[in-house]
Amino acid sequence: MRWIVYNVVFAIAYAAMLPSFLRRMKKRGGYRAHFGERFGRFDPETARRLSEKPRVWFHAVSVGEANLAGTVIRELRRRHPGFSCLISTTSSTGRATCEKIAGPDDVVFYLPLDFPRCVKRALSVVNARALVLTESELWPNLVRSLRRKGVPMLLLNGRVSDRSAPGYRRLRFFFGPVLRSFDRLLAQSALDRDRLVAAGANPGQIEVTGSVKFDVPPPSAEKIERARATLRAGGIEPGRDPVLLGGSTWPGEELALAEAWRSASGRTPGWRLVLVPRHAERAAEVEAELSAAGFSVLRRSRLGADAPAPSAGQGLPPILLVDTTGELFALYSQADLVFVGKSLPPNEGGQNMIEPASFGKAVICGPHLENFSAVMAAFRKESAICEVADAAALAECTARLMADASLRRSLGERADAVVAASRGALGRSCDAIDKLVSESL
What we know:
Layout: H1 2-28, H2 44-51, E1 55-59, H3 63-79, E2 85-89, H4 92-101, E3 107-110, H5 116-123, E4 128-134, H6 140-149, E5 153-158, H7 165-170, H8 172-179, E6 184-187, H9 190-198, E7 206-208, H10 221-233, E8 243-249, H11 253-265, E9 272-277, H12 283-292, E10 297-299, E11 319-321, H13 328-332, E12 337-340, H14 354-357, E13 362-365, H15 373-381, E14 386-387, H16 391-403, H17 405-421, H18 425-440
Parallel strand pairs: 1-2, 1-4, 2-3, 4-5, 5-6, 6-7, 8-9, 8-12, 9-11, 10-11, 12-13, 13-14
Helix pairs in contact: 3-4, 3-18, 5-6, 11-16
């Protein structure tokens, strides 16, 4: 009965959200490519490759999870030369990231919608030795179908956010059987373990491994140099011009940070502002909002790497709006102060603050970091991050840190120490995957 209820509710919810999904996909572009895969329909060549031999299947919903999966896949390749896998995703940006991660023998595809018929159609083709789901990806029909087929499953970097925990607990009669279908649940923290148990998981299935995001390797020298070229194209000389960088920003945060920068620049001139929205397709609306507020904006997509540096003109120099993908991590290495987005109200969840911290940067974030509860606990314990409640507090913290290099350095050193002390989840996670796969042979 519970499955009938789930399928009815899922169908209603999907129908209600479909128009917004289609608008978002159209805005991002390329949404028609491989569209049939979302319904379990593959072109002949993809179907052939998906079925040709058993592989470990990784699912990463979008960019952040794809980068996480990529770290694990690279380590498994190091351990096992010739290792190949299947990588599924949900978003077009996630697919672009997965395709960069994939080796020549890997297969990238869209996860089918969690309708029984779509899942059944896809699983008739996909030859999975094991399934590795990332963080909080629990697709009941997929999990249930793979359990029936005897495919072992593992949850990687598992977490239950502050927002999701009460719902999981109330619906443990439903989520319990789903969670108990996994062979292993690798939790980021003891808090995540307790929340999984409260949702109905078997405690004996859970191992606290920490977050693999602490083990993500730094960008290559080539990517660092590309980031430096991006700044130069915007008239910013790395190492000379101090940079305030807003990373993975969401609506409202770009203007709040620009206002904070403008206010602080009266006392600490010379700083440049670089904004990297989480979704590059928002560039036009961000530019319009900033322009209406009196800021000059340069969009990265309109600047060649060898373009002449623009003049500052009157008043503040232009804001560099990076509306391309794949540059943020490397850009963090060139910043002097970082704000991490999706954290100021009304946004919720937070984005990855580990990346700038790993470069020893002073990091500011808003109060809504529900997706990083365990990670933030480590930073808070060492006073290694600056949390602000709202735009006014952001302006105050930004001004204080822009004016005090020693304070920035101290905050960044503590952040870097937290990252260094928290590494090790990658090895533990790969050990668990190796064990799962060996037991399935």
